[in-house]
Amino acid sequence: MRLHLALLLAATALYAGPAGADVYTANEAGDGLTVYHANGPAISYPLTLPLAAHNVQYVEQPATQQHLLLMTAAAPHHAAGHAMHDMPTGELVVFDADHLAQGPLWHLPVGTHPAHVVASPDGQTAYVTLTGENRIVIVDLSTRQITGTINTGTGPHGLRLSADGQHALVANMKAGSVSWLDLATGQPAGDIQTGGTPIQTALSPDGQTGYVTLAGSNQLAVLDLAQRAIHSRITLTYAPAQVFVTPHYILVAQQGNASAPGNLLSIFDRASTRLIRDVAVCRGPHGVTASADEQKAYVSCVYDNSMASIDLPSARLDNTQPGGQQPNGISWSPLTAP
Fold first, then answer.
1. 243 DSSP β-pair partners
2. How many CB atoms lie within 10 A of CB 272?
3. In which residue ranges of the chain is pLDDT below 50?
4. Residue 3: which of 71, 83, 76 has the closest Cα?
5. CATH number of the CATH domain containing 60
6. Is residue 215 part of a domain?
7. 3-class DSSP assignment, residue 202
8. In this predicted model, what pLDDT tens digit does every residue of 36-67 receive, in sequence order?
9. Cα radius of gyration rounded to whole Å, the chain
């Protein structure tokens, strides 16, 4: 049965962030993408694909001045969070972020159960975790071709790149580990055993410290990447989903689960890992991102079908806005797309 990958954009004015900014969420049960416009009403762009969205990433290509939106999509399973099933080949779907009304520029089969996607600093290369194949796949965004793969631990899910684009830190859900990958050589550079069902990773700006959410143990692990070791563990109230790091903050979305939903965004001081505040934001905070100026954080709310906006300097909830069904991945851009 063909299901619709609908770009579900509520026809209301959504003031989700600072002027000139859009926020995107990928909706697993809604089979599409919600764009929260900063300065005007959102618009619906229907698209038919036999897939459900999972993750989304805004990308700038400085050389071409093009703005892309990358989405991973796989066979729909309608499970909030990270249910893992055998799935047929999923795809990387690419949009022109300045012209969403034109639909996707192209889409490419990449492998079994694509989970998260990130891009190199120059916006020319995408890296996609394949949960069903225990590797990441490398895609040249100019030629629209797969150019290589790198093996990971079992069940890779979330990943982030170092600021220089030379390394990737991958969360291996089934292996209970993270993989530190050397992207220049295309080889694994070492695993760190963490236990606790790793979901998503983050890196400090200097690339020396890693962070990984552990949903199975309600923890955030802080990693010494030079030593390939755990530096410390921070106990959380609920099972965490995503983590996002800025120069001054560590942001952790505490999703919980369907029977015991979490409701907190934890804001930590990055330098000291001191908790600044647990902010009650919504039911099931899942994805988290922040504006480049560190003024706003944004959270996808998987059990509320909404997005929350948080003022970071005051560590206070600004507002929540309705969105698609089971919003999962989230990304911020400086654009206000037409």
1. 252
2. 8
3. 1-20, 78-80, 83-86
4. 76
5. 2.130.10.10
6. yes
7. strand
8. 877 655 555 555 577 888 999 999 998 888 99
9. 18
Whole-number Å distance between alpha carbons of 125 and 15:
32
Give the DSSP letter of residue 80: S
Q: Amino acid identity, residue 172?
A: N
Q: Is 102 helix (H, G, I), strand (E, B) or coil?
A: helix
Pairing of strands 167-172, 219-224: unpaired
Per-residue DSSP letter, 47: -
Q: Per the structure block, which two tokens stand in for 175?
A: 């292996």
User: Could you tell me how many helices (H) and strands (E) the chain has, helices first?
Assistant: 0, 27
**Angstrom distance (rounded) from CA 325 to CA 8:** 9
Q: Which whole-number Å values give the CA distances from 5 to 26, 27, 139, in the listed order?
A: 10, 9, 22
Question: Cα(86)–Cα(88) distance, rounded to whole angstroms?
Answer: 7
Whether residue 8 is contained in a domain is answered as no
Q: Is 201:209 a contact under the CB 8 Å cutoff?
A: no
43 located within any domain: yes
Going 299 to 160 to 324 to 256, the CA torsion angle's sign is negative
Nearest-angstrom CA–CA distance, 229 and 106: 40
Tell me the residue length of the chain.
Answer: 338
> Residue 94's beta-bridge partner residues?
70, 106
| Closest to 78 (Cα-Cα) out of 234, 298, 258 | 258
Q: Residues 8, 306: contact at Cβ < 8 Å?
A: no
Q: What is the pLDDT of residues 122-152, one digit of tens each?
A: 999 999 999 999 999 999 999 999 999 999 9
Q: Is 240 helix (H, G, I), strand (E, B) or coil?
A: strand
Tell me the CA distances in angstroms from 72 to 51, 53, 59, 280, 296, one per residue in order: 9, 6, 14, 29, 25
> Looking at the 3D structure of the chain, how many domains does it have?
1
